Structure formats: structure tokens, C-alpha cells
Amino acid sequence: MTAITIKDQEYRDFCRFLEAQCGIVLGDSKQYLVRSRLSPLVSRFSLSSLSELLQLVISGRNRELRVAAVDAMTTNETLWFRDTYPYTVLADKILPELAANKRPLKIWSSASSSGQEPYSIAMIVLETQGRRPGMLTSGVQITATDISQTMLDTCRAGVYDNLALSRGLSPDRRRVFFENNGDGRMKVNDKVKRMVNFRPQNLKDSYALLGKFDVIFCRNVLIYFSPEMKAKVLNQMAASLNPGGYLLLGASESLTGLTDKFEMIRCNPGIIYKLK
Q1: Taking residues 53-78, what's their average pLDDT?
Q2: Are 190 and 156 within 8 A, CB to CB?
Q3: Could you read off the pLDDT of 29-56 as tens digits, one per residue?
Q4: CA-closest candidate to residue 109, choices 68, 139, 140, 70
Q5: Which H or E run contains 92?
Q6: Which are the contacts of 223, defined by CB distance < 8 A and separation ≥ 6?
Q7: Cα-atom radius of gyration of the chain, to the nearest Å?
Q8: What's the pTM value of the predicted model, to 2 decimals?
Q9: Are 167 and 79 in contact (CB under 8 A)?
């Protein structure tokens, strides 16, 4: 690789491209992120420089490269049972309340990344069913989506190394919900895997084909979007919820000034949002 720098104009053009593709807004000081995420693609696609890569991506002359670039920029690290409280609220409040509807519950993990969030949700459901066997008899269906096909393939495989397993997963849950993959890694067991259906979804697009949900997890996603894009996503999610449905955001995210379709509920700890 002969060049690892990015010209200011190239960076601005790539930022516009990325926002148009998936809604992600990069600030003025994120050149380092573009360099670190896209530099491996230079050698993978036998290019001479990062500058050449950016020109090809922005022009659209190489579709495979364009997809790979978006994939690289939208892949995020995650962990099991992130922040803890959303899963506690799900188990103690949301599931018991919605189970009274006596119909299958539908939960959407809207940015599944490498699978930790939807599989954590599935584990909570299974634990709840174990503790209260008569409560969720109509079943729970979990739909998990991501813009990255690479991440969806990882999710479907459900295989994780020790580093990934060490991030937020208790030894008890590892023992109950995982099995040995035979290569030093562990695999989510079939009982957990059967609960989750993985599908591609760009949050910029319509959600109509996904159907309606009782709970939507949209955690640590909105932070990457412009205010206009945040409002669009939130209003579309409101339209995708059944009456009385819940929306769970990331710990640092808020609906203030973006939508009036939800009421805020303080759960101590944590905040969740209920469709008005």
C-alpha cells in the first residue's frame, strides 16, 4: 500500500456517500476511523492506495467494493446483555405485561451486529419461561436485522471465541446456552438459535415487510444518525409497534425533540418508551 492518507475532499465525498447509503453521519474528525476500517480492503481488492479505493467506492464502478466498504463502516463491537437493565426490564416488566395478551409476542432487534443482542433476548425469554412455565405459552418470536451481510452470516452461525464470550456472559449462561464447537470456540445451542430469525434491513428503508412488533430494541444505533434520520427511524418504528408496544434505546440516547409518539417510563434503573 503506497498511501494511507485521505484528502479532505475525498473524506467529505465519502461521508456524503455513507450517509446516503445507510444514514451514518461521520464528523469532521473521523478520518482515522475511515482509514482503520477501509485500509484492509486496499490489499484485498489489489488496489494501489486508499485514495483509489475511495474513488471507486464513491463512483460506484465496483459494486463488490462498495458493498464491502459499507460493510466495514457499519460493523460494530458489541457484548452480551449490554448495560444489563434492558434485559432486567424485559424479564421483570415487559414480558409479564405483554404475556397477558395471550398471543405470540414479537420482538425486533433492529441492529443485531454479531448476534449478541438478539441471542441475549432469547436467553432472557428462555429463562423467563423456565421460571414461570405458564406465562409465555403462546411463544415468542425474535426478528434480528442488520445492514451488513457479513454480520448476518456471523449471527446465523452463532459461533464465538473466548474473547467474545468473556464480554458480558456469565459462566452459568455459557454452560446452559452454549455447546462446544470443536475448534476452541463455543456455539449457541439450538434452543436459543431456533428463537431468532435473521434478516437484512437498512433502517433508512421501509419496515413494512417485517410486520408488527410488541418490543423493539434500537440500542446504540441512533447515535450514528442525523436528527432528521433519527426522527424518521423513530416514527417508522412507532408505526411498526402494536398498541402498548415498547421501544428500548441505548443508555445515552433520547427521543427529545425527535418524536411525540412515545411516553417515557422510568424503570429504576433505566428508561424505556411505550407507544402512546
Answers
A1: 88
A2: no
A3: 889 999 999 999 999 999 999 999 999 9
A4: 140
A5: none
A6: 250, 252, 253
A7: 20
A8: 0.89
A9: yes
